Amino acid sequence: MDSKLFSLEIRHIDAKTGARYGVLHTPHGDCEVPMFMPVGTNATVKCLSPEELKEAGSGVVLANTYHLHLRPGEEIVKQAGGVQKFMNYPGPMLTDSGGFQVFSLQKTRKISEQGVEFRNIYNGDKEFFTPEKVIAIEEAIGADIIMSFDECIPYPVDYEYARKSTERTIRWAKRGLAAHHRPDQALFGIVQGSSFRDLREKCAKELAALDFPGYSIGGTSIGEPKDVCFQMIEDAIRYLPPEKPRYLMGVGSLDYLLGGVERGVDMMDCVLPTRIARHGALMTSAGRINIRNAKYKDDFSPLDSECDCYTCRHYTKAYLHHLAMTGEEFGKRLNSLHNIRFLIRVMEGARKAIQEDRFLEYEQMILARYGDPRGF
Ligand SMILES: [Zn+2]
Q: Is residue 100 very low, low, confident or very high in pLDDT (cuts 50, 70, 90)?
């Protein structure tokens, strides 16, 4: 990776926590961190156009390696000129490793040192992902930030399983690094190790020694208690180089997002805000609401009076309620737009608070107002 094309410029660290404010420089533009990254599984964030994402303040947008490999196939994306051109997103993008999806196929997958065999869910064909194959797919897709192939260890798990899996993930990271050639892509190593502190330490240290341009923290937010999740994050970050970006993968609720930032995480993603939006669940500064609730049918106030998104500027709860009850596509779009903007705005507030050394107060204020932070 060319460090002129990709680097993290840390501008301020909060005086009381590990939270850091900075700018991530990528081949497709700069973004401020910490940031929430919307997920565009099939090279589209469901219901939203790239222009709408940009207007909501998005920086990096995710796409899924596994899904794009199966449909339309990475060669099509490559022929289009890369995923940014294919989906017309005017900013940096990130692809995951496919590991999470492949390992979720518990019935059909077979793991070996070489890689993972699984069945194509669409046509039943045999597929085989190796660390080298995943890098080749990600190079063809062409995102700015890519992930090495890893195993997302389930939770809870016994120590021996976690140890063998983590050691294999480290070997796979080395193989991925050797197979990666595009100088305009930043390949991140993924720290696994489940909840075992010595395994997190070993994985973080060995990956740090390989000098990846950034690091991900994987295997969190899969059912473990919150204190265990935060311990996993701390155990990884302690051994990662401070000048490199840190990405906490697939973390969805507000307390985990802010808890990650508090501990020095720069990037986070989750599919939840758009998924729940399509079902009428909306995140507002006063907590989560379900717009389908009958009490909103004649509520002509904006969804969230503090929000500056297109939905809140132009529409009432009564109208959003009506669209949800009639199943209109436009309602799903307005709801998605708001939830994405909500999380991006929480992160904008976090960045400001870090620069003013009051992140902890900000975090407490947001969580107190939101009520049950796991409620979305
Ligand atoms: Zn809004």
A: confident
Ligand 1 geometric centre to CA of 216 (Å): 30
119-129: pLDDT as tens digits: 999 999 999 99
Per residue in 324-363, pLDDT (tens digit) is 999 999 999 999 999 999 999 999 999 999 999 999 999 9
Q: Find the 283 Cα to ligand 1 centroid distance in Å.
A: 9
Active-site positions read 96, 269
Ligand 1 ion: residues within 5 Å (CB): 307, 309, 311-312, 338
Q: How far is the CA of 244 from the centre of ligand 1 (A)?
A: 33
Strand residue runs (E) in the chain: 7-13, 20-26, 29-33, 35-37, 61-63, 93-95, 110-111, 116-119, 126-129, 145-147, 186-191, 214-217, 246-248, 267-269, 281-284, 287-290
| 342 Cα–ligand 1 center, Å | 6
**CA Rg value for the chain:** 20
Q: Are residues 66 and 215 in the same domain?
A: yes
Residue 65 sits in the same domain as residue 211: yes
pLDDT value for 103? 85
**208, 84: one domain:** yes
Residues 298 and 337 in one domain: yes
SS3 309: coil
Q: Distance (Å, rounded) from C-alpha 365 to C-alpha 360?
A: 9
Range of the domain at 107: 7-270
pTM of the complete model: 0.97
